[in-house]
Amino acid sequence: MIFMVAIFLMLLFWENEVNEDAVVTSIEHLHVDYPQNGVPLRYCNYMILQRVLREHDHTCKKTHVFIHERPQKINSICTSSKKMVCPNYSDIFCFQSETRFRMTVCQLIDGTKYPACRYKVSPREGFVIVTCDDLGPVSFQGYVE
To answer: Tell me, what CATH number does 79's domain have?
Structure first.
């Protein structure tokens, strides 16, 4: 029995190593940086490389947003009274934060093919818009200043 468990665990770890090109899509991995990473120069370039953020065709993302608030505060957006039809979808509801969040907007300024991408850093404050399910925020939909 112990032998079978050991083999199962080895196969599980081997499968994870083989599938290293898998994309992590949680809102926390993609958009949350709290506390904010201390890299003062080239913040966007560093974070986008660190988290392997790119389009599906391996091109550079045109724009990406990192939110610098506690995950609990981001989770509370789903209980916001500001419920609306999502700007990008006609049949899905979005929720807008009731308070402004600190964030960094990364705007592509050079490059087309990942990882040769360079970004402009723009610190912002704004209301965050997300989609939610029963467990909390699912996807970042944008922000309003």
So the answer is: 3.10.130.10
